[in-house]
Amino acid sequence: MSYPHTLSNFYGGQFVASASDRSEPVPNPATGETITRVPLSNRADLDAAVRAAKEAFPAWSGTPVPRRARILFKFQQLLVEHWEELARLVTLENGKSYGEAYGEVQRGIECVEFAAGVPTLMMGSVLPDIATGIESAMYRYPIGVVGGIAPFNFPMMVPSWMFPLAIACGNTFVLKPSERTPLTANRLAELFKEAGLPDGVFNVVHGAHEVVNGLLEHPDVRAISFVGSQPVAEYVYKTAASHGKRVQALGGAKNHTIVLPDADLDLAVKEITNAAFGSAGERCMACSVVVAVGGIGDRLAELLTDRAKRLVIGNGMDDGVFLGPVIRDNHKSRTVGYIEKGVQEGAKLLLDGRESAAAGEAGYFLGPTIFDQVDRDMQIWRDEIFAPVLQIVRVNTLDDAIAWANASEFANGACLFTSNSGAVRQFRETIDAGMLGINVGVPAPMAFFPFSGYKKSFYGDLHANGKDGVEFYTRKKMIVARY
Ligand code: NAD
């Protein structure tokens, strides 16, 4: 597959070269070789895309909802037909293993499937007799042009949390993909057009801060969906809200997995290994910290280290590879900095990813790293590292474990491994996290339910996906009528 020297933006139904003369290379993280360049688009590019979206809005929002849904069905069909191609694209630009990428495409397709149910989702409600001879009803409408800003770690799934549902609800959309993984978005735009989407309904503008700020400040953009790191989520939330926009901003994470002595340890070790090191730890639902309860710490540490040592590291395109590269060389250096920091802070380094043979290759590889004896005053515990680095802490009781997890500034996900239903109940009621896993390593977001998350992991009110997504992308009118 060959790619243009520099990617184009996509608006008004066609690819358009950016007006900016600034661009940056997009390397394949597994080899370091440049695949293409991504334009760092400017305000003129963004304004043109928003204009296209604004012009398309009256006709699209006025298109009967079942007709909109039919285009979503066709889009779903095309995504299924191009499933393998899309998965290869995700692996190429992100580095995750092909199997992980294939699963990511499935999650994206499910978002389109959910959005295709829009005739039911958009229904209002009516009470025929709210007073004598008086009826009251609620009608649901789209809100206008919506802006989406995406991170690098799920180039297919995260944009799919946003644009299919927003568009199904009758909005038009301008997506700013991550400049580090810009390829998949262009392919999605082509396929959506092939499905029959009218020009201007879905638009893609590549770039970085300038495009983001343009979206946040643009008077014709009504709402912003953001997914990315915590500081940027907070900035996006505050800036877009101060410009009168509806915002949902999903931020970073530091997910804890509690393992009780009555857990199936083999299952826990398999699931935690996948959750900590799958996708090179670059998942907002990655397991970052294992909390071993009641004397199982040594055994758990030994089993996790043994399993991690056996993981196959390499190019995600190759058969049997589990752990691909991290996204960029500077992310690798940042992670190495955290490993050095952990050693300085007194954590016990059980497995050192810097020593993996792959760490010397041209791609941005790091082996799995495991720290034991981590404490709450350590920076490696406080910060999101977002790389294949797992930390183990030890406590005496489930109460202590929950208190430990709840002390984090983040509250995205948390998991519990146990065979005790009472413990499950206590965990569910008292853990401060939005996505909970019981005897699973990754409480994965599903298109049909909201992707929850609290504290510094989420800024806003309505979450992404599910009925929260429908609420976010629609506004309501109420009627009180006497006939
Ligand atoms: P990032 O915050 O660096 O980038 C996200 C988007 O914001 C990109 O499109 C980028 O161009 C833009 N951006 C970055 N810095 C900016 C700035 N200073 N001003 C304006 N725009 C800016 O995030 P990332 O590194 O691409 O993605 C990884 C992060 O995303 C992790 O923290 C991860 O936990 C988080 N994430 C969260 C979820 C979730 O559901 N909560 C899901 C996926 C990823």
TrEMBL record:
Gene3D superfamilies: Aldehyde Dehydrogenase, Chain A, domain 1, Aldehyde Dehydrogenase, Chain A, domain 2
Residues bound to NAD(+): A150, F152, K176, E179, R180, E384
One Pfam family named in its UniProt record: Aldedh
Domain Aldehyde dehydrogenase stretches: 15-479
Catalysed reactions listed for this entry: 3-oxopropanoate + NAD(+) + CoA + H2O = hydrogencarbonate + acetyl-CoA + NADH + H(+); 2-methyl-3-oxopropanoate + NAD(+) + CoA + H2O = propanoyl-CoA + hydrogencarbonate + NADH + H(+)
One MF annotation (Gene Ontology) recorded for this entry: malonate-semialdehyde dehydrogenase (acetylating) activity
Keyword Oxidoreductase: yes
CDD domains linked: ALDH_F6_MMSDH
Pathway connected to this protein: Polyol metabolism; myo-inositol degradation into acetyl-CoA; acetyl-CoA from myo-inositol: step 7/7
Annotated transmembrane regions: none
PROSITE patterns in the cross-refs: ALDEHYDE_DEHYDR_CYS (PS00070)
Annotated keywords: NAD, Oxidoreductase
Coiled coil: none
GO biological process, one term: thymine catabolic process
InterPro entries assigned: Ald_DH/histidinol_DH (IPR016161), Ald_DH_C (IPR016163), Ald_DH_CS_CYS (IPR016160), Ald_DH_N (IPR016162), Aldehyde_DH_dom (IPR015590), MeMal-semiAld_DH (IPR010061), MSDH_GmP_bac (IPR023510)
Broad EC category: oxidoreductase
List of catalytic residues: C284
Similarity section: Belongs to the aldehyde dehydrogenase family. IolA subfamily.
Protein function: Catalyzes the oxidation of malonate semialdehyde (MSA) and methylmalonate semialdehyde (MMSA) into acetyl-CoA and propanoyl-CoA, respectively. Is involved in a myo-inositol catabolic pathway. Bicarbonate, and not CO2, is the end-product of the enzymatic reaction.
Protein's name according to its UniProt entry: Malonate-semialdehyde dehydrogenase
Gene field: iolA
